[in-house]
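Worked example 2:
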Amino acid sequence: MTTSRTVLVTGGNRGIGYAIATEFLAQGHRVAVTARSGEGPAGSLTVRADVTDAESIDRAFTEIEAELGPVEVVVANAGITRDTLLLRMSEDEFTSVIDTNLTGAFRVIKRASKGMLKAKFGRIVLISSVVGLFGSAGQVNYSSSKAGLVGMARSLTRELGARNITTNVVAPGFIETDMTDELSETQQAEYKKSIPLGRYASPTEVARVVTWLAGDDASYISGAVIPVDGGLGMGH
């Protein structure tokens, strides 16, 4: 039985984040989610926060700490895409994706680390993407932000590891979410051809890897990148 923890999932109001929050709840944890709009799953505490705004993150943590206790597990999942080819990509389209996906994770972890260092315990899980290491045309901004999370996790491991704080990366491939539902059947079939397992993952398949990394069984794993991509990236 894994110890019950206070968990924060950023961007927990839809897609993979919602599935991660749901799975933590099912395993008996106290779960808060940040969302700019919408709500997390039933039983979670939804707090309004924008990862591009450090003050809103601080307020969210203060609220969670008062309601659920100090945050012991952080899942940095909030992310955006603004896909376009390099020559058409504006500087704002590049920097806004970095600011949410990479700097946003930094802001959340910096605030969470205060309580973790005090408790001499913490589990940090960064949600990256197969694209972070595999690359993808039209996603120079997104893949840069997701690759950056790997360097972040490894540096945090060296900096915080001795305090019993682990930091790992989960890199999902194609997942059945609203985003993939919008693809045409032809596009879907084309994508599935490139995945050795021949199918997309369910959001729960990603969520269970995240909860495992945050649990007692993975206490000696840190600085790892775990692909949940059906063999698409083959550990690039």
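The radius of gyration is 17 Å. The chain has a mean pLDDT of 95.
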